[in-house]
Design goal:
Blueprint lengths: L1 E6 L4 H12 L3 E6 L9 H13 L5 E6 L3 H8 L6 E3 L3 H11 L3 E5 L5 H13 L6 H19 L1
Parallel strand pairs: 1-2, 1-3, 3-5, 4-5
Helix pairs in contact: 2-3, 4-5
């Protein structure tokens, strides 16, 4: 799977994230502080990773900032992106299942190495729900994206 990763800071957990994704066999594209010479501002690098997903250059993305909040907000401004801030494995699994999230947002402050592994395990193990109500909600979010383009 092709995964774009962004971080506004070159923190140990961000480096661990890159290593863990590569260890799992993913093709990783780094943005922000994880790529020399790139703009590390959270809004800039999170948007870049999210655009990779929206434009098909990546299948999914993981965006990081100190709290994860700014990264998730910036990513969610890109039409076609459904970013979820996940601080535990149960939330990550639910975000993939019920929300068909395609961007995982992480807090550099809260995410330890073991927790990162648990979150990634849950994220990659979960599949989007086939439940009609869940699909209707995801479709509604897509229509919100389309309505915003027309504004």
């Amino acid at each position: 799977m092709r995964i774009s990763v962004s971080s506004d800071m070159d923190e140990p957990v961000a480096r661990l994230l890159l290593a863990e994704l590569e260890k799992r066999g993913h093709e990783v594209r780094a943005h922000g502080a994880l790529r020399p010479g790139a703009d590390p501002q959270w809004a800039v690098c999170s948007e870049a990773a999210a655009r990779d997903v929206a434009e098909g250059a990546a299948d999914q993305a993981v965006v990081c900032c100190w709290t994860g909040t700014g990264a998730s907000i910036a990513a969610n401004k890109v039409p076609g992106v459904r970013a979820a801030l996940c601080t535990d494995a149960v939330t990550a699994e639910g975000a993939r299942r019920w929300n068909d999230a395609n961007v995982l947002a992480l807090s550099l402050r809260l995410t330890s190495g073991p927790l990162l592994t648990e979150i990634l395990d849950a994220w990659f193990a979960a599949e989007p729900s086939d439940d009609p109500e869940d699909r209707q909600n995801v479709a509604r979010v897509g229509r919100l994206d389309a309505a915003g383009k027309d504004s």
